[in-house]
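Protein data:
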Amino acid sequence: MTSELTTKEQEVLHMLSYSLSNAEIGNKLHFRPHITEKYLSSLLLKTMTSNRAEFVHFVIRYRLVEQNSGFCLSQIDFRKYSLKITS
């Protein structure tokens, strides 16, 4: 898996933790819609997930969230995780 997240990816990750849409994330971070999609795609690639539902599953499964505070952003190293989505 790819290494650590960039600062912008962490910002998008943080916004995703509050269930914001791409448009809302873009507005808050002053991105155009396609830039938000670029960062989301990068997050999906780094976590080897193919959509938001799988991404959320990954984040919950590996406890990258803290209750009532969104995602835990402290030095996430995705290389140590192997992801297997089961239905």
About this structure: The helical segments are 7-16, 22-29, 33-46, 52-61. The mean pLDDT is 75. DSSP finds four helices and no strands in the chain.
